[in-house]
Design brief:
272 residues; mainly alpha; 12 helices
Length: 272
Amino acid sequence: MSRQPIPFARLEARQGIAWLRQAYAMFRHAPLAWLLLLFTYYLLVALAEFGPWARIGQIVAPVLKPLFAVGFLAAAWTQERGGSPKFEHLFRGFRSNLYALIPLGVVFLVGMTLALLATRLVDGGALIAVLSGAEKPTEAMLGGGQLEIAMVFGALCALPTLLALWFAPALVVFRDAGAVIALGTSLMAALANWRPIAVYGLVVFALGGMLPSLVLTIAQMLFGDAVVGLLAMFLVVPYLFAFMATLHISDYVSYRDVFHAGEPTTPATAPG
């Protein structure tokens, strides 16, 4: 297991857009295969979090997230070398370094939980109550921007965890890094590349959040609720599935760009 410092590149801001463009190009070459992986993953998450074992599943699902991330990395690695994403790639992480991947999942669970709990400092627990279903959002909450402020604060609190985990699963499987080395290296590399990551985040927010909302809002104004429902089902939902698949692929693209800049696409060791 590697304990040596892992070098990484410092990239320009425009690379954040390049990551998404390259990831979408990979998705476009095998859309059905990627959608199958994505749909299976979210189906398993839904079964875990909303099934009869929901209390356990809500803990297990985040812990297993890095293992499934390895699956998407393996599929992208294979496609880049002329192969095709396959169903079995999704479970490749379960045959990888579990001693490093499981701790990453625990860090994700703890970090996200603490970030959510921190929102109580802003709204007294209103966001947590709404997300848990204990309360419904009131006009005062929505009108005063209370929930929005809490969400932004929570996202800022979650940012260190997200950056530490950005490249960590890939570092475990591609560089044989332990959990601590992977987390530390990922955080340092992400901070060093804050410009492309910031651009990436802004583009993701615009394309994944603002654009679908804008399309549905305009459709509702022009055509009414019936057309909005059809538009959401046949246009927005497929778009979001394709978009989410692109995001999963971009995890691999960004890792390769930061840690293997300029290298040929024939590394000695495949994931898992």
